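Request: How about a record?
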Amino acid sequence: MGYTKDEDGNLIIVPEEAEIIKRIYREYLEGQSLVGIGRGLEKDGILTAAGKPRWRPESVKKILQNEKYIGDALLQKTVTVDFLTKKRVKNEGHLPQYYVENSHEAIILKERFLQVQEEIHRRSNIYTGEGKNKRIYSSKYALSAITFCGDCGDIYRRTYWNIHGRKEFVWRCVTRIEQGPEVCKNRTVKEDELYC
């Protein structure tokens, strides 16, 4: 997606598809999850490169990790293992790979691409609390996975709290929720206190 080939086999940008690629990168850096980006594309009626209406998280992630969008090319990502059946497999050391910089026009700036790679790494490596528990990235709320407890270091989770018959949104330490106040003494924070 984003490119087509000319009669000589050179990659040429398809402007409408390039805008979709830019949108995916922008939304990811704005905090959207892979699922959230896919749902937004589906809602807007944007089809995948294969012409399908359903965007899978893996497809969005492949776009975010594809070096072609910065104008580079990694050659021999896959190799043919059987010339009769033309079966191809991922190149896991079968043959050497070659990285070619500036092989074609870029859609994404290299700096933005590198920011996305760092964010992918950060989201897949969220460990918090004293026990360094692995946490799953969530983009559901603006403060998800970026608000931490000052007592134990675990993340805060947005929950409902029933206060005198009325429900209120609050942010609470996950350790305190799961293990109780004996483990973490930090107090619950009302949502409006976090946005002050």
